[in-house]
Structure prediction request, 161 residues.
Amino acid sequence: MQTYARGGHLLQETNLNQVVDNVLLMLSEQFRTKWGVKVATELARDLKPAVCDPNQMTQVFINLLTNARDALQPHGGEVQLKTWNMPELAAVAVAISDTGTGILESELDTIFEPFYTTKAKGEGTGLGLFVAAEIVREHKGWIRAQNNTSRGATFTVMLPC
Ligand SMILES: Nc1ncnc2c1ncn2[C@@H]1O[C@H](COP(=O)(O)OP(=O)(O)OP(=O)(O)O)[C@@H](O)[C@H]1O
Ligand SMILES: [Mg+2]
Prediction:
């Protein structure tokens, strides 16, 4: 409580591969059985530690994976989660790609605004990406959305290491 009241975070050197693994431990089973979604990972073995609050980054990855899951409905499919070092930027990157609906080019910025949702009433508040972007911004990182050349979308998060 005090940490949040001060507006601070529990910044620590964090292996984002571990954060990702924990998130997948929480979500994988339900994604597979309830939503027909498999998450494939490609995690850099030598990933540099990021300076971040692991709990907040957990929230970011949950929000992005949940969106990827939803974009793959009603049939399900595969989500690719990749981590890698960006030595030229002294940063690490995490990308989450799906082969779902993709995003209208005109909405690629709008989706990060609070309460923007295309989901049915009661199914989405439109806060997931807003919260994710706020968290990443507070860590002095960046997040961006792109459409894939084939289909679906990729969200990339970069954090300083
Ligand atoms: N991977 C994706 N593929 C396609 N569209 C996406 C993807 N991720 C987000 N979007 C679009 O961006 C909108 C906003 O996403 P956001 O996570 O902020 O809210 P939400 O998922 O609608 O609701 P919630 O608050 O429950 O997360 C979504 O409604 C959807 O239209
Ligand atoms: Mg969402």
